[in-house]
Design a protein that fits this description.
MetI-like fold, 309 residues, BPD_transp_1_N, 14 helices, elongated
């Protein structure tokens, strides 16, 4: 467990450093905050006020030091502290990611089991749909769903938030890629498990086929599914940017896009840092759950590292 924690901290450090470098590579925010004919003394004073006149290593060190204390600075664009701004939009992103995750898991898992247990045309159809889901860009799918269900059929709202009806199209769009990956993983895992001796023994004992597949078979593929589910949930939090922009969803993804366009370094770094923290924590929880589901993971880790996590 200690190794996983250290790895998570290293990932978080790398995300923060990369975000800092990319943000500063976009240009000088002072040029956007002041008119083009502003005096040089005014530009210098504003850069000093924002702390942009210090060397980059000093700026990053100060950001990291304050971030560890929960302080991400003050937004250039909104003139407010970054942490409250992000916390205001975080529930919307969490709701979108949770809805997409539920759709992906509740639909993808049964589809994978059905395709593996029945085979034939069901397996071919699922494989084709999975490839389509992996290849289809989220922004294109979102626009097509808006065109069909909002513009043509008038069944759902076009954009914004306000109720469950506003959540349907963004959640469907965001869930497609995860749904395809989960269903493919479950299908391949179940195909391998259903050929094992203990499954033949269960069938020879006269157990119902549904029990053989959905209890004995599915239980033995849960560990990789939980691992991927943790990664997918974390990925949904970070990949919600495109969907939030398409559907004007008021989450941290849309906030980070606004920050990038305005070269608002503190806001951009704060949103990405918090999203990265969520990704790391979710994967840590998934690792812990996998150990609980299969103690052999704990034993193998302890044998390899000398101590159990």
């Amino acid at each position: 467990m200690r190794a996983r924690t250290l790895h998570a901290l290293a990932v978080l450090f790398g995300v923060s450093l990369l975000t800092f470098l990319v943000a500063h590579a976009t240009g000088d925010p002072v040029t956007l905050l002041l008119p083009a004919n502003a005096p040089e003394t005014t530009r210098t004073a504003l850069a000093h006020h924002l702390g942009l006149d210090q060397p980059l290593p000093v700026q990053y060190g100060l950001f990291l030091l304050h971030a560890l204390q929960g302080d991400f600075g003050r937004s250039f664009l909104y003139g407010q502290r970054v942490a409250p701004l992000v916390l205001q939009t975080l529930p919307a992103t969490l709701a979108l990611a949770a809805a997409a995750f539920c759709i992906a898991l509740l639909v993808g898992l049964p589809l994978g089991v059905i395709a593996a247990s029945r085979g034939g045309i069901a397996s071919v159809v699922l494989q084709s749909l999975s490839m389509l889901g992996l290849a289809m860009p989220a922004f294109w799918l979102g626009l097509m769903l808006v065109l069909v269900f909002a513009v043509e059929l008038h069944l759902l709202p076009v954009d914004g938030s306000g109720g469950l009806s506003h959540l349907v199209l963004p959640a469907l769009t965001l869930s497609l890629l995860s749904l395809a990956r989960i269903s493919r993983l479950v299908r391949s895992g179940m195909q391998e498990v259903l050929d094992r001796d203990f499954i033949r023994t269960a069938r020879a004992r006269g157990l119902p086929e549904w029990r053989v597949v959905w209890v004995h078979g599915l239980r033995n593929v849960l560990v990789p599914v939980v691992t991927m589910a943790g990664m997918e949930l974390g990925d949904l939090l970070s990949s919600a940017v495109v969907v939030e922009v398409v559907f004007a969803w008021p989450g941290i993804g849309r906030l980070s896009v606004d920050a990038l366009g305005a070269r608002d370094f503190p806001l951009l770094q704060g949103t990405v840092f918090i999203a990265g923290l969520g990704f790391v924590l979710i994967n840590l929880l998934a690792d812990i759950l996998c150990v609980r589901l299969d103690p052999r993971i704990r034993n193998s880790t302890g044998a390899a590292g000398g101590t159990a996590p």
